[in-house]
């Protein structure tokens, strides 16, 4: 694989309404050529709760293809408005995104992990999570 081609990774809901806004955002904000899309219904909930080990291992193995074979150095965890796989409200979903970022960061410390929220207008918003040196959530905003 040509390392001059820039890939990033999105762990996104399977909901088709979120795909294009996330791809456009990541290409524009991170100068990506391609976005590897790992999809599940409500992945922010699954990754935050950290209980469904079979699904989590599946997500992790697909992310490892993206980071290992495509040299992706960014992983975005996505939650969105009107999610059929995660019925939680916006506040709860954003908290789940923050917890998911922490869990996924533990998989590979060399990769940047961010949280994104797609609102009711299908606009992408960054969910800020600040870490201390031990990768524990230090401050959320």
Classify the helix fraction into a percent range: 25-40%
Order of helices and strands: EHEHHEHEEEE
Radius of gyration: 14 Å
Q: Count of helical segments?
A: 4
Determine the mean pLDDT. 92
Count of individual beta strands = 7
Please give the alpha-carbon distance between the first and last residues: 37 Å
Q: How are strands sequenced across the largest beta sheet?
A: 2-1-3-4-5
Large-scale geometry: globular
Which structural class matches the secondary elements? Answer: alpha/beta
Poorly predicted runs of 5 or more residues: 135-141
Strand content: 25-35%
| Biggest β-sheet description | 5 strands, mixed
How would you describe this structure to a colleague?
This protein has 141 residues and is α/β, with parallel strands linked by helices. 39% of the residues lie in helices and 28% in strands. A 5-stranded mixed sheet has the order 2-1-3-4-5, with helices on both faces. A two-stranded antiparallel sheet has the order 6-7. Strand 4 and strand 5 form a beta hairpin. Helix 2 packs across helix 4. The longest helix is centred in the middle third of the chain and has 17 residues, at 53-69. The protein is globular and about 40 Å long. It starts with 6 loop residues before the first strand and ends with a strand.
């Amino acid at each position: 694989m040509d390392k001059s081609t820039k890939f990033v990774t999105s762990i996104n809901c399977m909901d088709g309404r979120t795909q294009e806004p996330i791809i456009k955002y990541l290409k524009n904000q991170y100068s990506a050529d391609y976005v590897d899309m790992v999809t599940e219904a409500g992945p922010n909930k699954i990754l935050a709760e950290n209980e469904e080990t079979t699904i989590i291992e599946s997500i992790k193995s697909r992310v490892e293809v993206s980071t290992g074979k495509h040299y992706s150095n960014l992983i975005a965890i996505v939650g969105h408005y009107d999610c059929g796989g995660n019925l939680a409200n916006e506040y709860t979903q954003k908290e789940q995104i923050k917890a998911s970022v922490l869990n996924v960061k533990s998989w590979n410390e060399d990769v940047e992990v961010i949280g994104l929220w797609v609102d009711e207008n299908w606009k992408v918003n960054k969910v800020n999570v600040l870490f201390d040196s031990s990768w524990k959530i230090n401050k959320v905003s």
